[in-house]
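Hi all, posting the design record for the shared folder.

TITLE: backbone redesign
STEP: 1 of 1
STRUCTURE INPUT:
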């Protein structure tokens, strides 16, 4: 019920916010300020950033912000505020649009890209980079991460905390089930077979994952299939539907659903906490979760765990996992001095050393390509194979529309309605076929409604 109320409120907020900004959508974007705007500002320029990082990840983010404040003492001061999970954060941001009180920078979750772009409330990163050469070079950032935050070829946001989905395995449980250390777990079929073996041989659940549509996106992208039609909304035309009830994506989702229906898998909860807790307690052999849970695993009970590459099913070169995490967006409503200060904050947060420190504390993948050249990073990766795996998977993922993910302002509502249908199938309340068909039908309606809200 809480989720339904949240999504209803968020949908209403999005509608009002889009209507409020529709009158300005045809206006040409204001020119991005250059460094002189900050240089000429008197005293300390105060800026704000909202984010959705909590626990170990939130502490690491605040540490980075503290470092920026120390480096810019007397000139810039930033206040970071946690605004809840990404859906809560986006709802609060839409309310702030109406009250004209948006923060200078927002660290918005990955699927916020469509709405933030459509709302015309953010100053595109491409404009700031062009107006301020030498502060933040977008070419220094991972192409796979940068690609996600582009719309129609224009860089809107700057990736900051980037995660990649991986297969986490409890080696002790796999050994107990008779699965060798080199057991093939590279494909989804191999993972499904191993999960069944674990349950049969040990009585322990073989699999779990978070009840979140991001993981349904992964099952689609790793099949080489666009989540949304057409081209995931990346090439000018807005999406008109989703494809999870079709092709190899449907086969993948059905295989996971069968694990739940047969009792091989256990529910991972909407925020993933149940999956993590069960994994740490030795009650499940394998989970598919974000690399960003590494910080939580480090602080939990000690056991023999390992990260493995996300299991694939599609053709090489045409498929791969979608990046997760969040990106930095600069407010168009901030003053020129604040916008430059915010841009300097984004440059600092994505710098090689800061990305290294943040990655070590959280499990997010460093998105600055120069981080890999640091001697300390090379030493760390040699001693931490899980983090090396995260980096390898991100950098080796093919940049195609399937792995870029779908961009639409309707993604939050689509995500929630998808999981309502799919988890009902996992709980045995309906067939997976009917669940996926219903989810696809709802998505078509939600995309059409969103298009109408935009005035198209």
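Okay, here is what came back for every position:
SEQUENCE:
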């Amino acid at each position: 019920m809480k989720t339904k109320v949240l999504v209803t409120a968020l949908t209403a907020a999005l509608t009002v916010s889009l209507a409020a900004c529709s009158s300005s959508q045809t206006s040409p974007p204001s020119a991005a300020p250059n460094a002189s705007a900050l240089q000429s500002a008197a005293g300390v320029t105060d800026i704000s950033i909202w984010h959705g990082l909590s626990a170990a990840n939130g502490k690491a983010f605040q540490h980075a912000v503290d470092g920026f404040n120390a480096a810019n003492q007397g000139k810039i001061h930033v206040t970071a505020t946690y605004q809840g999970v990404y859906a809560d954060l986006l709802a609060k941001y839409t309310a702030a649009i109406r009250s004209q009180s948006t923060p200078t920078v927002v660290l918005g979750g990955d699927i916020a890209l469509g709405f933030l772009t459509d709302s015309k409330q953010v100053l595109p990163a491409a404009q700031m980079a062009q107006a301020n050469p030498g502060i933040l070079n977008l070419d220094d950032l991972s192409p796979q991460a940068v690609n996600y935050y582009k719309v129609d070829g224009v860089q809107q946001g700057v990736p900051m905390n980037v995660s990649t989905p991986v297969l986490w395995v409890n080696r002790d449980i796999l050994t107990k089930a008779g699965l060798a250390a080199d057991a093939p777990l590279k494909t989804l079929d191999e993972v499904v077979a191993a999960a069944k073996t674990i349950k049969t041989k040990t009585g322990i659940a073989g699999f779990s994952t978070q009840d979140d549509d991001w993981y349904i996106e992964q099952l689609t992208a790793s099949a080489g299939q666009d989540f949304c039609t057409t081209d995931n909304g990346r090439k000018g035309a807005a999406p008109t539907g989703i494809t999870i009830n079709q092709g190899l994506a449907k086969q993948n989702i059905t295989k996971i659903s069968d694990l739940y229906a047969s009792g091989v898998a256990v529910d991972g909860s909407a925020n993933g906490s149940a999956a993590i807790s069960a994994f740490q307690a030795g009650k499940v052999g394998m989970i598919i979760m974000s690399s960003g849970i590494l910080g939580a695993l480090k602080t939990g009970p000690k056991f023999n765990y390992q990260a493995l590459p996300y299991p694939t099913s599609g053709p090489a070169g045409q498929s791969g996992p979608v990046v997760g995490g969040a990106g930095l967006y600069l407010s168009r409503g901030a003053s020129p001095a604040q916008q430059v200060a915010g841009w300097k904050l984004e440059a600092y947060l994505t710098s090689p050393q800061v990305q290294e420190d943040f990655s070590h504390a959280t499990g997010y993948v460093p998105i600055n390509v120069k981080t890999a050249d640091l001697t300390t990073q090379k030493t760390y990766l040699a001693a931490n194979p899980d983090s090396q795996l995260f980096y390898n998977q991100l950098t080796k993922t093919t940049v195609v529309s399937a792995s870029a993910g779908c961009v639409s302002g309707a993604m939050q509502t689509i995500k929630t309605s998808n999981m309502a249908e799919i988890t009902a199938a996992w709980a045995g309340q309906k067939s997976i076929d009917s669940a996926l068909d219903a989810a696809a039908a709802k998505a078509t309606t939600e995309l059409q409604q969103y298009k109408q809200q935009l005035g198209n």
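COMMENT: The chain has 20 helices and 14 strands.
Let me know if anyone wants the other runs.
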